[in-house]
Design a protein that fits this description.
84% helix
Amino acid sequence: MQTLAFLHRYLATVLLIFAVLLAAWGTYTYFRNQKVSGGFRSAFLIMAGVTVLQGLLGLGALVTGASPREGILHMVYGAFAVLFLPGAYLYSHGGSQRRETLVLAGACWIVAIAYFRGIATG
């Protein structure tokens, strides 16, 4: 029980740092008027996948008895991040390269806020 809760807390911090770094990278790319690189896309998808893993760890901790301070609000932030990242990725394709950069960088900033709020409510 404590191991899942610890991993959930630790991975939340890692994801927050990762999201801020990725957001800064995307913002820099946007203002340099460059297209998103394959490395950025890969890192974005890795963040989306690790977010799902984070949610599964949270569910495991919840099932084994750990509960967040602000229960439902904490879970809403997690569900938002899990659904928002793939949605932003799919939405960003099909437009201009500049729009893709803006959407993905913006998504990183938004999800960083959600990660932070999740940490604050947990």
